[in-house]
């Protein structure tokens, strides 16, 4: 019986130990790599699920906002006809065309949740031209601080005064005031309610609660919306805070880029 050569035995043992070491090392790497791939896969599936859920919520929100904008378009058409029956002016016709064109563009936008305050104020002034027969004290800021608002929200508040206000000589003056600062936007309105519309307010009507719900969806806890009656005088206050982390997150989620207009309305 021949004994193995010690040197050959050492070499074989070395080779076997070498192979065993690297196989163990490779198996550990394989397990770690597989675990990382599995974790990344679960994470990606979670992101996909959250994105789908977010997209579905955004679509539902878009539908609600489109219905609201369409309803507003119908209201201003009726209001324009009523206003023009009393007094027809070329400026009213031009403003009506501008507002309706703005609404059509809003409905066609991919991101319709936000517009710049600058754009909203421009069309608010055009909207005011449509109802120039109503004497309303009017104040808006010259600096908008790149704030974003829900489209048509200020126009709806102005329309509410025109639709339900009393403008006879004995009634105190109605007012519409917008104040902007670097961190917030405040809108206040005051007007006397006409006797024909008083029952609507007593029943909690005027669609302001629907507006509150939409504003809450857009601005969340950064928004305060209050209104009430003092005798036959109606008051309203809308405040939006812009310097919060929650607001910035909402803006980033829904997309901050919106079309802007200059003071003459060009894009």
From TrEMBL:
Native organism: Sphingobacterium gobiense
Transmembrane segments: 21-42
Keywords for the protein's UniProt record, in alphabetical order: Membrane, Transmembrane, Transmembrane helix
Protein name listed in UniProt: Signal transduction histidine kinase internal region domain-containing protein
